[in-house]
Every structure is written in C-alpha cells, then in structure tokens.
Amino acid sequence: MGARRIGLLGGTFNPVHIGHLRAALEVAEFMALDELRLIPNARPPHRDTPQATAEQRLAMVALAVAGETRLTVDDRELRRDKPSYTVDTLESVRAELAGDDQLFLLLGWDAFCGLPSWHRWQELLEHCHLLVLQRPDADSEAPEALRDLLAARSVSDPLSLNGASGQISFIWQTPLAISATQIRHLLATGRSARYLLPDAVLAYIQAHDLYRAPNA
User: Fold this and answer.
1) Of 48, 151, 162, whose CA–CA distance to 101 is shortest?
2) Distance of alpha carbon 82 from its chain centroid, rounded?
3) What is the model's pTM?
4) Residue 156 near residue 143, CB atoms below 8 Å
5) What's the whole-number average pLDDT of the chain?
6) Which of these, 85, 71, 83, 62, lies nearest to 16 by C-alpha position?
7) Hey, which residues does 6 pair with through a beta bridge?
8) Residues contacting residue 19 through CB under 8 Å, at least 6 positions apart
9) Where exactly are the transmembrane stretches of this chain (predicted)?
C-alpha cells in the first residue's frame, strides 16, 4: 500500500453547513485525498445566543458526513482536557500515520494570515503541508511575518506538493456564501434554514431544540 493522503479541516462547526462540506469535498476530490477529516474544535461557544454543546456539534458533523466515504469526523480535540492547539492535533494525528503518509491542513485565507499568532506556529510545517483556500476576492498580500516562509515553502501547484510535510500551496475556491452565524440567526428568529445545511443536521437541530431564541 502506498503513502496515504489525509486532509484535516478544523472548525467550530456550530452548526456544520453545506459551505463547509462542499469546500471539503471539492478539496478531497481535487487533491485525490484518501480521507478528509473534519475536526470540531473545543473553542468555548459565544455567550450571546443559545449554543450547541461540543457533543452536539460533533454529532451534527457525524450526521453530515454519513454516506460520503471521503469525509470523516475526528473527535480528538473534544476528547482533550487541556486547551486544544492545532500543533498538538497535528502531532497526535501524525503519530498514528506511516512516516511517508502525506498530511494536509486546510486553512482559509484569513486563518492563514493569522498564523503568526498561533501557538508554536513555526512547527506546523514539520507535521503537514498547508493548503490555503483562497477566495477569488481575497486580498492576497500575506502579512510581513509570513513572507519569508512563503518565499521558502510555497509551491504553485498544489498537486505537486511532495513528501510528508513542509510545503504550502493555494487552492482557489469560490466558497458558498453561507455562514453558521447566518444560520443561527435564522433559527433564532423562527425562520427556515433548510437547504443551507444537510437535512439530517437540520432534523437534529429541531429534535434538540438548538439555536432557538431564549424566549421562543
């Protein structure tokens, strides 16, 4: 068996929606990944609206990817007791893989530009390649702190990333204009969120009375 190609996409997924899923599937197909894991993170929810618990967010992602063989859910960040840093997650995943397996961390452009504020960010590329999902309208000037890294590690064609880790490439995507904030607002105001997220996820939200306005 040859080297496996594994993608990781982290997020709050509060709730997971078809914007997340479509982006994940497009990357999985384009990059010929064996598996793309969605990793719900343990970030504490915002306090202004009723929120789903970590367990509920995980359950919704599991429902969302059921039946799509390339997409899976990984709960390791929610199982960890201490604060969850991406570098810890990468170390943990990498420890379970063969040495020549390729690991790709998917990041949006905004997250990529914020990398210098991440915990031990310079170590990320020791464990994975970075795939930056670039919007056609993104202002593509990376911050000063990343320019040297890009000059040294950037590869123009994402399909030519080689080795287990260490390089950065960009994938152009036109993301669906859907946000979890918008979905929570619709639900809190009693409107329908149908067709913005998988039916199974919507049914779960309704069954568990999630994202309702406090007085609803």
Assistant:
1) 162
2) 20
3) 0.93
4) no
5) 92
6) 62
7) 35, 103
8) 175, 176, 177, 178, 179
9) none
Alpha-carbon span 124 to 153, nearest angstrom: 12
> What span, in angstroms and rounded, lies between the C-alpha atoms of 128 and 151?
17
Q: Compute the distance between CA of residue 52 and CA of residue 181 in angstroms, rounded to an integer.
A: 13
What is the Cα gyration radius of the chain? 18
- pLDDT digits over 178-208, tens only? 999 999 999 999 999 999 999 999 999 999 9
In angstroms, how far apart are the furthest CA atoms of the chain?
A: 56
Note whether 173 and 25 are within 8 A (CB).
no
Tokens for 118, please give them.
Answer: 């991440």
Question: Residue 48's pLDDT band (boundaries 50, 70, 90)?
Answer: low
pLDDT tens digits for range 105-131? 999 998 999 999 999 999 999 999 999
CA–CA distance, 18 with 196 (Å, rounded to integer): 6
